[in-house]
Batch of 2 targets.
Target 1
Amino acid sequence: MEFNHKSEHSRRISNKLIDQSRLKQNQYTLSLLQEGQRSGFISNQKAYQIQVEMLQVLQQLLLQHTQGESSSVTTETAEGMMTSLIYAIDAYTLHFKNPEEALIQLNNKSIKEIHSKGVELLRRYVDETKQLYQEVKKLKLNVPVDAYQMTIDESLPVFMRHYDIIFEAQNTMASIDYPLAVDDMRLQGVFYIKQYLERLQMETSFCHFFSYQDIMYILINFGKINRFNYQIELFNIFELMINNAVFSLMSGGKATHVRISEIQFERLKQMLADSPADQRAKSVHESISQLQESLQTGQALTDYINLYRDTLVQRVNNAAEIGSFEKLIIREVKEHEKTMVFKVNENDRMSDIKMRNLVDRVLESNDTEEKVQLIREHVVSLHDYLDLLHAGCLFNKEYDALFASFGNVELAILAKIVFYEELRDGISDFLDMIAEGVETEKEWKIHYIAFMKQLDDTQIKAVGLLAHEINYEDISFY
Amino acid sequence: MNLSDMLHSIQLSQNSNTVMELVGLNKKTKEHGLMLTPDEAKSLVISRNKVLRDHARVEMSIGVLKELIEVFSASPYMNQEYYIDTLNELQEIFYYLRNETEDRIGDTKLIQRMNDYYNGPCAGSIELLRSKMEEFAENYRRDISFPDSIYKGDE
């Protein structure tokens, strides 16, 4: 069916016969053209002409890319440029409220014009994204979560610096580590980064409803509960805060009160374990609504939280099924009474020059005992110990001699580093961990495992117990 | 409507126009006694498309083929009998070189270099030209890896 008369065309289009479920977010225009052809809004001839015009624009881009020097490019380059071209066209067609309007544009405007309008829009989005980034930087939480800090300080600026609107608009450029609570990975290029920043901004604003002390309280206890160093793990801060805020409301507390008491925890456990799944879902939904109201979360944040609802319901149901809420509801992990004082301090770090001197002196010495003595006399902080071990200034038996001079506490601290993943997962016991060892290329770790294997089981167990008691917060080694 | 199909259709959709463009070059080449029939021009375009596919390249115009015809038709070694075969060989060598030199040398310079060798040391031998160009590509790639080599500044 062909429509030559423009008003007739628009009238039919206004009847909204386009089946939106057939449209794809990625390669929107191509799916729109297919759907337009299927429903008769675009003639086959017009669809063909659009493709030819796309190729003409591609030809121009190609010449621009090779600066007129070459008339051919590799298929890979051409496909990348074509994807970039279609990405810009998508930017234009997607900015119309409905697909019918976009189809009218495709019918009436040249692809060259649509492409250049798309590029203009992309430029605007990039500017908005840069603006948004500045706002996120200002809002940034001062928490020692590496993925969060590095994503904002290092990864996102890579996008700002290298994003290529013309030839690689579909390329997101930056590798983003920090996970969002709700992320749409189907998006690419500036659309992805813009959405990522919008969501990161909302998540961060949400976290600002809570005091810094409360955020740190949640993070530290989250690390302790999971027996890992939360600073280097990949997790979402917003989720931890909203979960506990919701649990607080469910157990009679306030939305801003994220510190869950033992009594609240027991109440929640009983309430959730005893209810059927639909009842649990209902309670979670009610508390989330209550949270949105009491914190007056604003439209955008309210909508975003709504996207997270089902995830939380799912998690609560999973926890109820396995009968354990310990990892979902964060509460204070009581400290064991410290029976020892660490002999390696995280403070008192040596200056770089002093460290270099020490490494030189250790290297120069031919006497193992003297080497160990030099190290024991001069090194007090864990950081320096690690620097020294990484410097490779010890050889074979010298490692053994140094480790032999260590007490169980020091050995346990090194075990926390060597067996980080195994201790976090908590599946095998320490004796087995030592027996099995870990795959590593670090020389000192290989020697450490070999040294530990020589010890008798009683001492290994003692070191294991200590390793279990030591928290990563107490041994900041980065 | 898939992307690589669309790109592939570039070569096919332009066939009729391109054949006429190539035949139009006869005006220039006839002074050297070289002529293309429409069928021969068509076979050149088909070979070109195959060579492009074999070398995983996309070209939006037939600029290279036209330039090869214009430049090489002036060679004293080119004759009507082997005209089509030679042009096909030249296309093959050109796109091989294009990939091997990682798109760092422009079309015109690359064709000029081929022509210099063809008319010079190769004395019209395509086999020799092929081996000389392989040698050239090898040296060029070495030059890319070790920028201080003697070829520095050649481009």
Note: The interface with chain A takes residues 1, 3-4, 6-7, 9-10, 13, 52, 56-61, 63-64, 95, 98-99, 103, 106-108 of chain B (CB under 8 Å).
Target 2
Amino acid sequence: MSDAALGAAGTTTGESRPKGRALRGIPAGVRCASPVALFMALGFLAPLLTVIGFAFAEPRTFTVFDSFTLENFAEIFDPADTVWMSFAWSLALALLTVVLLLFVCYPIAYGLVRVFGRWSSLVSIAFVFPLFISENVRLYGWTLFFINHGVLDGLLAQLGLPGPDVLFTPAITLFGMVYTYLPFMLFPMTLGLSMVPADLVEAARDFGASRTMIWREIELPLAMPGILIGALLTFVLAAGAVAEAKILGGQSVIMISHDIEIAFTYSQNWPRGAALAVLLMLVIGGLSMAVMARLDLDRILGRR
Amino acid sequence: MTHFDRRDALKILGAGALAAGGSFGLPGAAFAAREKEMNILCWEGYNSAQVLDPFREKEGATVKAESLTNDPTMINRLRSGESKVWDLINVNNPWARKVMYPEKLIKPLPKDEFMPFFDKMLEQFHPPYRWAMSDDGSELLGMTQRFGPYSYVVNTDKISRKTAEETGWDLFNDDSLAGKYGILESDDWNVFNIFLVAGIDPFKEHTPEEMQTFSDTALKVFKGAKVIGDIATMNQALVSGEIDLHLTGGTYSVSPARADGFPEMRAITPLKGPMNGKGGVSWIEVTSTVNNPDLSPLATEFLKYVQDPKVAHTVAFAEGTFNPVAQMGNKACFELFTKDELDAIQWDSLEEEMARSVEYDIVPDYEKALDLMNNAKRQRS
């Protein structure tokens, strides 16, 4: 049965006919997708709007859209409030994580694309597999590795060496973040590098370009969209990280997500938590937009 | 080739709607379903299969439990409209009487059915037990079960019990112990304890000078801490020798380590302190029926079920933490505890430690103190 026939069969009164005609003006795909689109809009936008609404509610209230105040933001920007330290630690550690992962992942991604050949799949699986285990379990595993009388300490003791006192420090928090977010940098970077045509590299080599020149002039620019996506993804996730600082770092630094959690739990101050969340969204959203503006998604997806 | 037309799609949608009606259903169906359904919001232990499975089997019911590790979050869940979801709430002693009942978040229990259970509990819980009653003493607001002292924990191989008890909260003012202690991530209790380290009674209104002392003490105590973490982290750090002691801690937190073969880890209650001479703080859980417009009839049945000596013993040793229970006042319940279990919950000193403790209460200027403490915590980096 065609759309037109269904429309005619379903309309028995003259009043409803224009509605049918109006619907016919909307493409079938849009009409079919509309329930899902509505569901997604409600599922995504409703919580977001609620958080934004709470950010402007009176401090320590539990009702949203009943009041409007900027007090939560004023409190956060008050110099006496040290919450800026949490923002600074989160953003600094996220940035350091991205920088370290750029150096760690590039050789691995290069290997996956150009060197490992048929072993590439196996190496990829090795990097993906830890994602199937809960992050907390993996981090507790590292705690047992680094703790006094743990795996590392025990091994070094057998060699007559003292164990390093690394647990519960900001450095180990950074290690945990690099470890956790490695796949999120590695795979977009691998995708980026895989889009560098081998012919182009060979041609450059035939014309006498050095390895450094090929890397700088061909590989890096062509792989840059993938690298930027990896960096962006890693930064966004790392800026909201909390488990590494709690489990491995022993809260030697307080991350901004932890402050948000405290506001929603022990403090019973949902508006403050919401205001912090809105600020974090603005910072991360702003940075994301800036990076996305430099990306050509069509090219990354191979449409050109 | 199989054809899939609009008629088939409508049939599937219709079947789906019927299936959904079966589980989520119309109001009538939902009401009927609540006869065999109950939801508990609780501290860990009550959500364990050991406690819930026999009740599920006995009642043929679907019982869901969610465990959280702080009272304010649980109470906020009710405030945010989840009163329609939960049937029972299990929190520490002051909340039922001072907050949840005045805010109409919970409803009283039938006294004739539940008061007799208190007669069989340990003496301190004999009726009318203050924290189970409304402010005017007319209503019974909940049932008591787990309890314990909760101040700090030491490795007695490093600091003797005698020294720890006599020195009291000044242990955390001792510069030589900086970097050797941890802080349990339990911020409401940490507020109490920072006040106590500062020599101030937490459960009163504080002057600006006292708040300044609190802030300075918080800064010092957090800067000197080697680690802040959950119970598992504290026990692991104690056993591995990363730390020698930690604040906020008690039977509740250290009993798993003691049961696991580390009896040298011990909960300590100081001999003296700034709360009318007392130095320790204790907690008592009170479980109440939520003011749910469609309260499951199983809620009160569950409260009766956990009074049974065997079930009370299971609750005491449910997974996660091990604790004394008020039902140990009943000989039939007490006899179920082995010597090792009694040792894990420090039964030998329980009575004197409870006597040296004041009961968990609400700090009048908690929000301000918590903000100061969080500021101090951030500055430890």
Note: Confidence is low (pLDDT under 50) at residues 1-31 of chain B.
